[in-house]
Design goal:
13 strands; alpha/beta; binds ligand F0G; six-stranded mixed beta sheet
Length: 467
């Protein structure tokens, strides 16, 4: 490490605590205690980090910028990983057994066609699909599996619509733990299933939906050999919050007006909200970006709740109710977010309200067309990610976002996560019902393959026709 920036992670005490999010309870637990829900009141937990920044906030910012510049030269995860580079704000010691696949380091891409489609002058897309297993889950798995190793677990388990599974499978393989994955049978894209199989996970297919798998996983949590790697686990959120840090660096520390993310189990929105809030607490930001979450119409319990909130009468904290009415039988072709009872909804709702953002839903047609438009920018993403651009179009039309606002949408998964969806869209066979039996809808940007005679003249003629 000669010539490298001095590391500044020495802390006097444990680098944080786990705290119950219920303000009336607020019980605290040690970082190495294996708890997922508060044993006293049953609410979810969050980690409160003690930042290790002897050089103050500005010193920390300089350190991070230097490390980011050095990352391409380094094999040290504390420089090369887009998660471990931010160790000062993570609940781990300097000598932790860092699990890594050099996650993070994802691009922020200009998307002019998608911007025009939404009615914006400019739109940037933070593409988390560039992560090692092709989705945003990898940043959270780096921290979750590191914590699993520290805790002495033998098996890491998750419920998944596919991406969490693929990511857990890879990171468990890296760390030498068994991965056990509960999937809703027949409802996961084959590409994601293939990844989990290839990384050697034990794949358990359940006759039920994601929410049923999630309930089962929570029952398994009391076995000391088992570590839950879903985002109910606050260590997952810690890794995922680093996306906010990397993003703000890419924005040259200029806070965007809006950040837009898809919503499923609500870990991602929780994590982004937490990341930005921590930077604000350190006075590295002067305001929060407005965080908006977009759900698919058939799986939108939080958007439904949001629409009923009375903003005139209550403060942000008072607006979060005790219960969320789940969607019993969630339906969407964006299978990654086919979730009716999101576990992190309270944390996510709180983050959205504190930032002044929105939670809305979009239709299957809107998702599909937005996805094709992102493709036209040469970017591509999986269907769930495209809710962002579909949602932006609606928010601009409704006047919630202004044409000239600085907007970043987070794309969560790689286009090749669900090739079947793309083929069906472009061939005109995508139908609203997820069993494929409904009426196919006409994609606005359909681009089906053309059959052509095997001659140069025929090929040139078809080029001319399409120009
Ligand atoms: N986008 C993609 C591609 C996802 O895979 C998910 C969630 C989300 C968005 C929603 O994020 O749950 O944090 O609100 N996928 C989970 C899984 C549920 O099992 O892979 P969230």
């Amino acid at each position: 490490m000669a010539g490298r920036p001095a590391r500044a992670t020495t802390r006097d005490a444990e680098p944080g605590v786990q705290r119950c999010i219920n303000v009336a309870c607020a019980s605290m637990y040690g970082l190495r205690e294996r708890v997922y829900l508060c044993p006293r009141c049953g609410e979810t937990l969050e980690i409160v980090c003690r930042p290790a920044a002897p050089g103050g906030s500005e010193g920390l910012r300089q350190q991070w910028m230097l490390r980011r510049a050095l990352r391409v030269l380094s094999e040290d995860p504390r420089e090369a990983s887009g998660v471990w580079r931010y160790l000062e704000l993570l609940p781990f010691e300097e000598d932790a057994p860092f699990v890594t696949l050099f996650e993070g380091n994802t691009p922020l891409l200009e998307a002019p066609r998608s911007a025009a489609y939404c009615g914006l002058t400019r739109l940037r897309l933070k593409h988390q699909g560039y992560n090692p297993t092709g989705s945003f889950k990898d940043t959270g798995m780096a921290t979750a599996l590191t914590q699993a190793v520290i805790s002495g677990a033998r098996t890491a388990v998750c419920a998944s619509t596919g991406n969490t599974a693929a990511s857990l499978a890879a990171y468990a393989a890296r760390s030498g733990l068994q991965a056990a994955i509960l999937l809703p049978r027949g409802q996961v894209s084959p590409s994601k299933l293939a990844q989990s199989l290839d990384y050697g996970a034990l794949v358990l297919e359940i006759d039920g939906n994601f929410d049923a798998c999630m309930r089962l996983v929570q029952e398994l949590g009391d076995d000391p050999s088992i570590y839950i790697a879903n985002s109910i686990n606050p260590f997952r959120i810690e890794g995922q919050k680093t996306v906010a840090f990397e993003l703000i660096e890419q924005c040259q520390w200029q806070v965007p007006d809006h950040i837009v993310v898809p919503g499923g189990n609500m870990g991602n929105s929780t994590a982004l909200g937490k990341g930005f809030q921590e930077l604000l607490d350190l006075r590295l930001l002067d305001r929060l970006p407005k965080l908006s979450v977009i759900q698919a119409e058939g799986a939108a319990p939080l958007a439904r709740l949001f629409a009923t909130l009375d903003f005139t009468k209550h403060t942000a904290d008072e607006l979060v109710p005790e219960r969320l009415e789940p969607v019993e039988n969630p339906q969407t072709l964006a299978t990654a977010i086919k979730i009716g009872a999101p576990v992190s909804w309270k944390k996510a709702l709180r983050a959205v309200l504190q930032s002044g953002g929105q939670i809305i839903s979009v239709s299957e047609q809107e998702i599909a067309d937005a996805k094709a438009m992102i493709g036209r920018d040469g970017i591509g993403c999986e269907p769930a990610s495209a809710t962002t651009v579909a949602g932006l179009k609606k928010l601009v039309a409704a006047g919630q976002i202004v044409r000239t606002d600085d907007v970043v949408a987070v794309l969560t998964g790689h286009a090749l996560k669900d090739p079947d969806y793309m083929i069906r869209y472009h061939e005109g066979n995508l139908s609203v019902s997820s069993d494929g039996k409904g009426e196919p809808f006409a994609g606005a940007f359909r681009n089906s393959p053309k059959r052509v005679a095997a001659t140069k003249a025929a090929i040139l003629a078809s080029l001319e026709r399409e120009r």
